[in-house]
Each structure stands twice: as C-alpha cells, then as structure tokens.
Amino acid sequence: MEKIQMITPLVEMDGDEMTRVLWQMIKDELLEPFIDLKTEYYDLGLKNRNDTDDQVTIDSAHATIKHGVAVKCATITPNAARVEEYNLKKMYKSPNGTIRAIVNGTVFRTPIIVKGITPCVRNWKEPITIARHAYGDVYQNVEEKLQSGDKAELVITRADGSKESRVIHDFAKGAGIVQTMHNMNDSIVSFARSCFNYALDQKKDLWFGAKDTISKQYDHTFKDIFNDVFEKEYRKDFELAGIEYFYSLIDDIVARIMKSKGGMIWACKNYDGDVMSDMISSAFGSLAMMTSVLVSPTGVYEYEAAHGTVQRHYYKHLKGEETSTNSVATIFAWSGALRKRGQLDDIPELVKFANKLELATIQTIESGKMTKDLALITSFEETVTLSSRDFIVAVRKTLEDLL
Ligand code: NAP
Ligand code: MG
User: Fold this and answer.
1) Which residue owns the Cα nearest ligand 1 atom 44?
2) CA of 19 to the centre of ligand 1 (A)
3) Nearest CA residue ID for atom 31, ligand 1
4) What residues does ligand 1 touch, defined as CB less than 6 Å away?
5) Are residues 353 and 251 in the same domain?
6) How confident is the model at residue 281, as a pLDDT?
C-alpha cells in the first residue's frame, strides 16, 4: 500500500511520562506505516520546557494558530514535587492554560462509546460533549470573611469617575462571608462562537443553560449574548445543517440531559462545566476514554486526551514492569487531528484513514481485547487483558484488515 501524503503539517506537541511512551508507540505502529506523516514537532516534555524557559509552549501555540490544527500529548503541570523531581528553574504554568490563553479557545470533551462499557445512565446511547467556558466567575472571584458588625458594599467607579455603591449585606447581626465575580462580554462572545462553530463542525445540537431567572443581570447576559450571536451569525447555517440551538434554565437542561439519549453538545458556564464534565466522564465509564479538543472562535483546533500523564504507570514502566495503559483517547486525539487536516486540505484518503483508525480501535475493544482499566469495568464475560504495547499492536492488526 502506498503511504497517504499530507500537505500542511500537523503541529505535534509531545509530552510527558506514560503518555509520551504511548505517543511514540502510536506513531510507530498506527501512523507512520500508513501515512507520510508531516508534523511540525514541539517537545513539550517538562525537561525541554525547562531548557527553553517554557518558550517551546508559547511557540507551539503560535504554530497552532498558523497551521490551524495541532495534536497534543498529556503534559505535567509542575507542582512543588515536580520542581524537585526535574530540578526546574521555576514552577511553570500549565501548558494547557498557556496554549488556551494564546489560542483563546473553548475545550470540548467527548466520551468514546464502545459496546461492553455501558454508561451508568441507561438511556444515554450517544456521547454527550461538554463545552466549558474557561474565563471568570468563581475562578477569578474576590471574596472575604466578615466579622459581626462589618458591612459589605459593591462600589462601581464609572468611566466618568463618579461612584455608585450598593449594600451587599449588612453583617450587623453576625459574621459571614461575601463573594463577587465578574465576566467579560468579549469572552462570552468568543465562547458562544466556539460552541456554535463546533456544533456545525460536528453536526450536533447545541444546548446551553444558565440561571437567568434568579441572576437577572449576570446569567441573563450569558443568555442574551448567546442568543444575539446565534441570531446574527449562525441561525441560517444551523438551519442548513439541520441542527438546533436550545436554551433553557440550567435546572431544566440538567433534567432533560438525564432523560435524553445523548448526542448533543452541552455548553456550560465555567463552574457548571467543571462539575458536569466530571459527572459525564465518570458516568460514561472512564477518563481514559475521553477526548478533548480546544476550538478557537476563528476555527483553530488542538486535539488531546482528557487524562493526564498516568504517572503511576510510568514509574512501573521505568522499573521494567509491564503496563496496561489505555491509549484510546490519545489515538483519538491523532485521528481527530488527522481528520481535520484532511478536511481542511481536501485529502479524502486522510479523512478515511482517520475514520478507520477509530473504527479499528473500537472493534478491537468490542472483540474483547482491551487494557486493564476497561477489563475491570466491562460487561463482557470473556476478555483478553493486553499490555500497553500489545493493545496498540492489536489495533494495528484490526486496522490492516480494514484498509
Ligand atoms: P492521570 O494521569 O489522568 O491519572 C490518574 C489515574 O487515572 C491513573 O493513575 C490511572 O489510575 C487512571 N488513568 C488515567 N488515564 C489512564 C489511562 N490512559 N489508562 C489507564 N488508566 C488511566 O492524572 P494524575 O495522576 O492526577 O496526573 C498525572 C500528571 O498528569 C500530573 O503531573 C498532571 O499535572 C498531569 N495532567 C495533565 C493533563 C493534560 O496534559 N491535559 C491533564 C490532567 C493531568 P490507576 O493508577 O488506578 O491505574
Ligand atoms: Mg472538575
């Protein structure tokens, strides 16, 4: 078979620990035998981030904007223990945070569904994608503990210098707490555009919920901005694509999601997204089966697995012990990026290959061959638990039969 040719390079962001090991295996076994893989390589492994004072992360984000599509391996976000372990010059910020700030995107997380791993919610048949707004609200709040006798006020200095203040609460009768939050219209507009674009890209309905009945200024602004952006920029395209935008009160959305068969993209305010993404991923079975894509409001895409570097498995691997680490989400990060590259560059063979790679991965698991994390939760009675490498080799065999 002749190798598939690429036109524009994919931005490749290598990473850390066990996922870095899987990364190389995936390239060796599942990609390079079939594709003349063209990537612009950035080593985001912690050692190289330290060697470059984290410039490599910034460069990789700008390359993503330039080329349009990136694929990223999981990376360590340093804490005090990592500073010591890697002898770091400083405690670098999360690479995902740095990339997200430059690309200005929204993260969409989608579970990968296979037979034998049944969602806890019986009626969920299709994946539910969560889009989390990643700016403001409680994550950038100002809060304070107050003593009895204190008074909390909100003071606004208008553009002309005049001041207005409102009492939040008078704590005359006892101690308490106060919290204030903010958001930016521009950020909400970008979030809305990313969500509408991704819904069109995926041809799936978009749902959004906020507490606008109680929060008549704050949450209502989210509702209004989503509505304005939809009416002005997206209604026609949604109608053409046969998909819908659905807004309701957050409580109603939660109730409907539970009773739905899935298949929608669920846009969430920052806190709702934080909480609901954990509920969705655990209800669908496993963090190792969750993909993640960062989408900018202008249509730049960065694909990755939702899980981390699987440190515990890596230490076993370093000791020479056999590991059984699930590579599915990382395989899907590659297939997602290759499919998008194929669509943008009009290379149908690349799109077909990406689809078959995903199908081969799913069929391998559905034939009973899987890694330990899935073997522990599957409803299949007969399973073969494979090592990290043997699972990838099994996927390659299935893939070769499909090609
Ligand atoms: P983690 O790497 O996601 O792993 C947590 C546990 O979940 C693992 O110990 C393992 O459980 C299970 N697990 C996760 N992915 C798996 C897979 N693919 N196959 C099998 N089991 C899997 O989270 P963490 O241990 O909290 O974080 C490790 C490092 O990853 C940290 O340095 C963190 O900063 C980084 N991180 C990076 C990203 C990212 O780059 N997007 C995201 C999150 C965390 P068992 O040990 O029980 O088998
Ligand atoms: Mg959370």
Assistant:
1) 308
2) 9
3) 76
4) 74-77, 96, 287-288, 304, 307-312, 325-326, 373
5) no
6) 85
Minimal-distance CA residue to ligand 1 atom 37: 308
Is 147 inside any structural domain? yes
What is the Å distance from ligand 2's center to 97 Cα? 15
Average pLDDT rounded to a whole number, residues 31-55: 98
Cα 207 from Cα 351, distance rounded (Å): 28
Number of H helices, E strands in the chain: 15, 18
In a domain, 293, yes or no: no
What sign does the dihedral 151-156-157-160 (CA atoms) show?
A: negative
Domain total for the chain? 3
Specify the pairing of strand 176-180 against strand 142-146: antiparallel
Ligand 1: which atom is nearest the Cα of residue 77?
A: 34
Its pTM stands at 0.92
Are 268 and 244 part of one and the same domain? yes
Structural domain that includes position 176: 142-180
- SS3 call for 329: helix
Say if residues 3 and 63 touch (Cβ distance below 8 Å): no
Residues 74 and 130 in one domain: no
Helix, strand, coil share of the chain (percent; to 5)? 45, 20, 35
User: How many other C-beta atoms can be found within 10 angstroms of the C-beta atom of residue 256?
Assistant: 15
Confidence at 391, pLDDT banded by 50, 70, 90: very high
Q: How far is the CA of 140 from the centre of ligand 1 (A)?
A: 26
User: Over the stretch 164-207, which tens digit does the pLDDT of each residue have?
Assistant: 999 999 999 999 999 999 999 999 999 999 999 999 999 999 99
β partners of residue 35: 4
CA of 326 to the centre of ligand 1 (A): 11
Lowest mean pLDDT, pick from 36-45, 55-64, 112-121:
112-121
Q: For residues 34 and 1, give the distance between their C-alpha atoms in angstroms, rounded to a whole number.
A: 8
Q: Measured between alpha carbons, how far is 12 from 44 in angstroms, rounded to an integer?
A: 9
